[in-house]
UniProtKB/TrEMBL annotation:
Gene3D superfamilies tied to this protein: 3.20.70.20
GO biological process: DNA biosynthetic process
Taxonomic lineage from the root: Bacteria, Bacillati, Actinomycetota, Actinomycetes, Streptosporangiales
GO molecular function: cobalamin binding; cobalt ion binding; nucleotide binding; ribonucleoside-diphosphate reductase activity, thioredoxin disulfide as acceptor
Name recorded for this polypeptide: Vitamin B12-dependent ribonucleotide reductase
Organism encoding this protein: Nonomuraea maritima
Length: 938
């Protein structure tokens, strides 16, 4: 099982060391891994989200036939190097993997990692097999840079430092800009900077860290879309005992108030609007670093001292509970700040003799020394679920060994954005192995995400992964030496290893699956402690749980990182364009595991396909509902369910977990306080929350644009009022009215729609005619037209019909001949999207996220789209004749609208800076399923 250390290699005249004797996992001697794969050629064509023009095209790319269209598209557009259309352009996954793995193998052989060339070849073949079969993936910078003429940047996560000196602050701006320019993100703790309540040496008053955040925020806002790989991300941390902590806590919430005030005054505060740039502090995630002392004061209701930065003396005393309340209220209003639990983080710190852990990367999973970095890799857990629904423990152990070996080799050849980061990373060799598809694995094996059984499986897998990783790190230390900083940190490092092993001993197993995994984890930790005592460790850090955004899509994972499934219904891209709705493939497997017969499974799957949830599914027992609970939808997992899952895995991770605890819009400040308090009690290292629709400047907001909602404190006795309701009256159409007829084709079926308006504006009548569809359908469409028309004349808003009929699914469906709406799930879906584009005013369409191409282009130029629409209207009036309206952008994608209509949930995610698609949560970051771009680490 373990690749033992044996043999020797001469290395540049130095004393020979033993090298690793590699063993095969997936490959066979004498057979190249590529030869066992069926390859196929595909065309990758990506269209512009604004006007439908082609913005990327590469034909004849080569991928395994098992790879989805989406995975192939993302790899082709994001990871293939070379100018498109030139011979230097990569066109096959083989070339990409060869480019990367070749550097790893060559470096490992040259630096004494392997006993001989045969072992290097085994390493090479095993890596290629695992990557080609989507068993794991390195983080994106590896695919971007390794084996190219660019600097060999392999890290995705960075932590900087800043001192209480102007030179250091300006250096922070510069270093952050360099990292952003490359498309990566960084984090920093500003607590060393004097507060605005302290004096300068010259006698003046310091401006405080929040003022310096303004300059850094502006810099990030300017650079964020300039990177070739992804938009920038940043984290700003402030200690809870900093005298400016209240200003820090309220900073982003005050800006949200400003957004609301400006919006209500008529300024363009939509995402991408020209006035939104006046809002500050929006380019960073903010977190408060809380101490055990503070949290105990909150529990007891005591006072807490805020301390001067230079002397450490208490200069102000505050009520701990009131300060904690302000944190929760600010998070309720705008999702910031998150919390980082300082004492917990540093209690698990392997290198405290070098320095404390003060900050994290933007997604909060990497927590280690200042001026350091971490490269990531994630394992696709579902690849280890065998046909008999048992977990392949042996292969998981071997693959983890292989990945840790490769990740450590990468630090040997890697380049870094600053010399300070390079020095620290080479001296401490921080790694971040993690996994994806946990949610899918649990569902497929019949485990509810929020259950003792689900948490036991997750804890056992995480413990096994980290135990193997550190055991391999100890083996590597015996081959190529421990990390440079190990000698001074040997005792605290070994102490943390014992803490991990003790947590593993305390893990309570529930079923046979987690019991088997846990038994192997115990063996691995025992061996780890023995080897570590003998050899030391090669790496100061080994594991964490990243969001796995882009690489999760690359591996065709159903779920990212530690997340549960987002929804039971997914959308699959089709060859040649378009997409189709499918029920998650893990659901039939889960139903079979739970003992259902094939006929029952088919009926339940059909029900889920229609309703997107399992409630009242035919034949499904109620005790099994919880297995199919998701992050969103009819049975959304409760916020504390997410917290408990994080707590089940945190003791087995070197770093932390990238995850946001989502709360419904109805959540209260008390709910957020409870989440933050329980996160501390359960031993988490970091925690962020997001209350649905808490932000204003969001695309596709589910809100109605009304004024700021007030926090819910306590339920009050409602006042009983008698309201007299007038019956609606019908406003009939005049005999002569303006109308517009649209000819359309949906899935090959032709039709005509005539929409008539009142002379003083307002849609009042719709007639529908389908060609060659038979008298029955023609009669149904006539009756439907009458019903809709009468409803409109009685005052039913068009938006109401949209919410009911957009994304209704039945045949005919598919491609249309309308350049504005290229795909429709039914005739109803097409009709009401077309009516919205033709008859809703700009402000109402903006609330729904529907813009014309000209309006989107205006947003990109920083102009006011509303003013553009007014100009078009004025021109139309001046000409007093029909005008050709500029092409409009597509309505929200089928996926977005289906999720929102079926689940009554709108994720307040940003639009992708690359392709314009609405992103979805991935950990505490976001990922675009259209092109694979992320807002943080992957």
């Amino acid at each position: 099982m373990t690749e033992t250390a044996s043999g020797s290699v001469e290395r540049g005249g130095r004393r020979p060391r033993k090298g690793l004797k590699m063993k095969r996992i997936f490959t066979k001697p004498g057979v190249h891994p590529y030869d066992e794969i069926k390859w196929e050629r595909r065309d990758v064509v990506m269209t512009n989200w604004r006007d439908g023009s082609i913005n990327f095209e590469q034909r004849g790319v080569e991928f395994p036939d098992s790879w989805s269209v989406n995975a192939a598209n993302i790899v082709t557009t994001k990871y293939f190097r070379g100018a498109v259309g030139t011979p230097q352009r990569e066109w096959s996954l083989k070339q990409l993997i060869d480019r990367v793995v070749g550097v790893y193998t060559k470096t490992g052989l040259e630096n004494g990692y392997f006993a001989g060339e045969e072992d290097a070849e085994i390493f090479d073949h095993e890596l290629k097999h695992a990557l080609a079969h989507q068993v794991f993936s390195f983080n994106s910078p590896v695919w971007f840079n390794v084996g190219t003429m660019s600097p060999q940047q392999v890290s995705a996560c960075f932590i900087l430092s800043v001192d209480d000196q102007m030179e250091s602050i300006l250096e922070w701006y510069k270093e952050e800009g360099v990292i952003f320019k490359g498309g990566s993100g960084s984090g920093v703790n500003l607590s060393r900077i004097r507060s605005s309540k302290e004096l300068l040496s010259s006698g003046g008053t310091a401006s405080g860290p929040v003022s310096f955040m303004r300059g850094a925020d502006a810099s990030a806002g300017t650079i964020k879309s300039g990177g070739a790989t992804r938009r920038a991300a940043k984290m700003v941390v402030l200690d809870v005992d900093h005298p400016d902590i209240e200003e820090f806590i309220e900073t982003k919430a005050r800006e949200e108030d400003k957004v609301r005030a400006l919006r209500d005054a008529g300024f363009d505060m939509d995402l991408g609007g020209k006035d939104i740039v006046s809002v500050q502090y929006q380019n960073a995630n903010n977190s408060v670093r809380v101490s055990d002392e503070f949290m105990r004061a909150v529990e007891k209701g005591g006072d807490f001292g805020l301390r001067a930065r230079l002397t450490g003396e208490v200069i102000e005393t505050v009520d701990a509970r009131k300060l904690f309340r302000k944190m929760a209220q600010a998070a309720w209003e705008c999702a910031d700040p998150g919390v980082q639990y300082d004492d917990t983080i540093n209690d698990w710190h392997t290198t405290p003799e070098t320095g404390r852990i003060t900050a994290s990367n933007p997604c909060s999973e990497y927590v280690h020394l200042d001026n350091s970095s971490c490269n990531l890799a994630s394992i696709n857990l579902l690849k280890f679920l065998k046909d008999d629904n048992t977990f392949n423990v042996a292969d998981f152990v071997k693959l983890t060994e292989l990945i840790i070996t490769a990740m450590d080799i990468s630090i040997t050849f890697a380049d870094f954005p600053t010399e300070k980061i390079g020095e620290t990373t080479r001296a401490y060799r921080q790694l971040g192995i993690g996994y994806a598809n946990l949610g899918a694995l649990l569902m497929a094996t019949g485990h509810a995400y929020d259950s003792d059984g689900g948490r036991a499986v997750a804890g056992a897998i995480t413990s096994l992964m980290t135990g193997v990783s550190y055991r391999r790190s100890a083996e590597l230390a015996g081959v190529v030496g421990p990390y440079d900083g190990y000698a001074r940190n040997a005792e605290p490092h070994k102490r943390v290893m014992r803490k991990h092993a003790a947590a593993n001993d305390d893990l309570r197993t529930i079923g046979s699956m987690d019991a088997k995994i846990h038994a192997e984890a115990s063996r691995q930790w025992s061996e780890c402690l023995k080897l570590g005592e003998k050899n030391g460790y090669r790496n100061a850090q080994a594991s964490l749980l990243a969001p796995t955004g882009t690489i999760g899509l690359m591996m065709d994972c159903d779920t990212t990182g530690i997340e549960p499934d987002l929804a039971l219904v997914k959308f699959k891209k089709l060859v040649g364009g378009g997409s189709m709705q499918i029920v998650n493939q893990t659901i039939p497997r889960a139903l079979k595991q739970l003992g259902y017969q094939q006929e029952q499974i088919e009926a339940i799957v059909e029900y889920i396909s229609e309703h997107s949830h399992v409630v009242d599914a035919p034949g499904l027992r109620r005790e099994h509902y919880e297995v199919f609970d998701c992050a969103m939808g009819e049975r959304a997992i409760a916020p504390m369910g997410h917290v408990r899952m994080m707590a089940a895995t945190q003791p087995f991770l070197s770093g932390a977990i990238s995850k946001t605890v989502n709360l419904p819009e109805s959540a209260t400040i008390d709910d957020i306080e409870q989440v933050y308090m329980e996160g501390w009690k359960l031993g988490l290292k970091a925690l962020a929350v997001y209350r649905d629709n808490c932000k204003v400047g969001q695309p596709l907001s589910a809100g109605d644009g009304s004024k700021k909602q007030e926090p819910k404190e306590q339920a009050k006795e409602p006042e009983v009022k008698v309201i007299e309701v007038n019956r609606p009256t019908r406003r009939r159409m005049p005999n002569q009215r303006p109308s517009m007829t649209t000819r359309f084709t949906v899935g090959g079926a032709k039709g005509y729609m005539t929409a008539s308006s009142y002379p003083d504006d307002g849609l009042g009548e719709v007639f529908l005619k389908m060609s060659k569809q038979g008298s029955t359908l023609a009669g149904v469409m006539d009756a439907f037209s009458v019903a809709i028309s009468i409803g409109l004349q009685y005052g039913v808003p068009l938006e109401t019909y949209m919410s009911k009929f957009v994304n209704m699914r039945f045949e005919p469906a598919g491609m249309t001949d309308d350049p504005d709406i290229r795909m429709a799930t039914s005739v109803m879906d097409y009709i009401f999207r077309r009516l919205a584009l033709d008859h809703l005013p700009y402000d109402e369409r903006a609330a729904l996220g529907i813009f014309s191409a000209a309006e989107r282009a205006a947003q990109q130029r920083g102009e006011d789209p509303a003013a553009l629409q007014e100009a078009v209207d004025r021109e139309a009036l001046a000409q007093s004749a029909p005008i050709e309206v500029a092409p409009k952008a597509e309505a929200p994608t089928v996926k977005e609208l289906t999720l929102e209509s079926h689940q009554r949930f709108t994720a307040d995610a940003p639009l992708c800076m690359t392709c314009g698609t609405k992103m979805r949560p991935a950990g505490s970051c976001y990922v675009c399923e259209g092109c694979g771009s992320t807002s943080g680490c992957s």
